[in-house]
Amino acid sequence: MIYEFQGYKPVVHESSFVHPLAAVTGNVIIGKNCYIGPGAAIRGDWGQIILEDGVNVQENCTVHMFPGKSITLKASAHVGHGAIIHGANLGKNCLIGMNSVIMDDAEIGDESIIGAMAFVKAETKIPPRSLVVGNPAQVVKKVTDDMIEWKTRGTQLYQQLPKDCHESLKEVKPLREVPEHMKLQDGVYDTLREYFLRRQESHNKKE
């Protein structure tokens, strides 16, 4: 659902995917290979919102701001389910955890990870590569190379998802019975805990 507002029409690169149940309004610019999930609301009615290449804004997220403000979600920023970005700028390859809230004029540094349900107060400046948790949110340690590798792989799945949606997503009537021999999807990505366990197992085998 793409809406013009006061003469501003959203700009969406053809390689990106905006779900029909999302709402993108006004002065919004969406770059390449971005994914906007169902229930997401990106409201550029009072200012400009830029999503650089490879950004994902997942289900039921809100991106908005106070009048006269403009914000940027930089390349490969990853906004988890239910998060709210209100007038904040997100750095490159950062991760915003599920149901977290990032308030006005906050700056999230490149490759930082904001934990689920964190509350980042207005005007907070989060340095690059910070791991942030809590309400109010606090930096608890630096993000490691392993954590960034895990995060980047997850974001790459979302950067592939627009192409997959363009090719295969379609509205259908539901089946009434489970098909015989229906296969489950392959596991292609570990939770962070599983990722570290696999790394440790691989390290132990080498020793």
From TrEMBL:
Entry protein name: Transferase hexapeptide repeat family protein
CDD domains assigned: LbH_paaY_like
GO molecular function terms listed in the Swiss-Prot or TrEMBL record: transferase activity
Entries under Pfam families matching the protein: Hexapep
Keywords: Transferase
Keyword NAD among UniProt keywords: no
Alphabetical list of SUPFAM superfamilies matching this protein: Trimeric LpxA-like enzymes
Organism: Geojedonia litorea
